[in-house]
Write a structure and sequence with these properties.
This protein is α/β, with parallel strands linked by helices. It folds into 2 domains: 147 residues, Rossmann fold (3-Layer(aba) Sandwich); 123 residues, Elongation Factor Tu (Ef-tu), domain 3, CATH 2.40.30. Strands 8-13-10-11-12-9 form a 6-stranded antiparallel beta sheet. α1 links the parallel β1 and β2. α7 runs antiparallel to α8. The radius of gyration is 22 Å and the shape is elongated.
């Protein structure tokens, strides 16, 4: 394969959620890219390798490929996020070929950075020791980053998924190093916000992305303009106004007037305020949303 002329320093991993452990790799990539005068980059996959390798039910993800790429750019300055399609060909690619053909020849890797437990290539035969040895032979730099701990717990996507599923958003954010994020295009809902007197954004989690514990959250919504507003956001099936089981994400935006339909917005989750419950009337629901709005304002004032 013809060698590309573009030079990249590449972080290797799946990077689900882009947590503090991933951040250690990505910061190192930024430092090395400046030294090499190369592009800071990362390779990730469109689907979790375990889904295909182990033939198990899909691992629920903390972030879509879109959010993963944006988090790497926003918080760590990664300019080039290479989303590799994980299919049968990629799964059966020998580990040496992954390095020599895919990383070096195709993507111009002059230095790679991987975690202490990174495995790759057919049957996971590639590991940090083999990666280091092969890179040395190829004249490519290689850094292996040790695990990152917080509160004596190894920072991992698996642990953070458990926190999000339980609604422990503040602790999840502590291990992520940034707010848990959902990016989507605003769609039309049932106009509940108009009924209650709040502008709303109706969003959806992408298929395969982990849905947080049902309930109401203190959130911040960022618009395409770069502005942001606080919001009271319900995640769940809205038992007061719906009789189905379709999961919705509905944010009641505070101190805002306007139409956001069709805009792509970023919603950041900060605190689980209460569980989802059914109210006797819309008036009772509105009263509770007003109380949640006060809680949300108070929470952000204390940050």
């Amino acid at each position: 394969m013809r060698q590309t002329e573009i030079k990249r320093v590449i972080a290797l991993g799946f990077f689900d959620g882009v947590h503090l452990g991933h951040g250690a790799l990505l910061r190192r990539v930024g430092e090395l890219a400046m030294q090499h005068r190369a592009i800071p980059a990362a390779v990730t996959f469109d689907t979790h390798p375990e889904n295909l390798i182990l033939k198990t039910p899909a691992v629920p993800l903390l972030s879509s490929p879109l959010d993963r790429a944006e988090l790497m750019r926003r918080y760590y300055g990664i300019q080039d996020v290479i989303v590799a399609h994980f299919d049968e060909r990629m799964m059966h690619m020998p580990w040496r070929e992954f390095v020599t053909d895919y990383l070096v020849a195709e993507h111009g890797a002059v230095h790679v950075v991987a975690g202490h437990d990174f495995h790759f290539g057919y049957k996971g035969e590639g590991n940090p020791e083999r990666l280091t040895q092969l890179c040395r032979q190829l004249g490519v730099g290689c850094d292996i980053v040790p695990k990152v701990e917080r509160d004596h717990i190894t920072v991992s996507s698996t642990y953070i998924r458990t926190l999000v599923a339980q609604g422990e958003m503040e602790r999840a954010n502590d291990f992520l190093g940034h707010p848990y994020t959902l990016t989507d295009t605003v769609v039309h809902g049932k106009k509940l916000g108009t009924t209650l007197g709040f502008p709303t954004v109706n969003l959806r989690f992408q298929p395969g992305v982990l849905i947080p514990a049902y309930g109401v959250y203190a959130t911040r919504v960022w618009f395409e303009s770069g502005e942001s507003r606080l919001a009271v956001t319900n995640v769940g099936i809205r038992p007061t106004v719906d009789d189905g089981d379709r999961v919705t994400v509905e944010g009641f935006i505070l101190d805002f007037t306007g139409n956001l339909y069709g805009q792509t917005v970023r919603m950041e989750f900060y605190q689980h305020l209460r569980g989802e419950r059914k109210f006797d009337s819309l008036a009772a629901l509105k009263e509770e949303v007003m109380r949640n709005a006060d809680q949300t304002r108070s929470y952000f004032q204390q940050l």
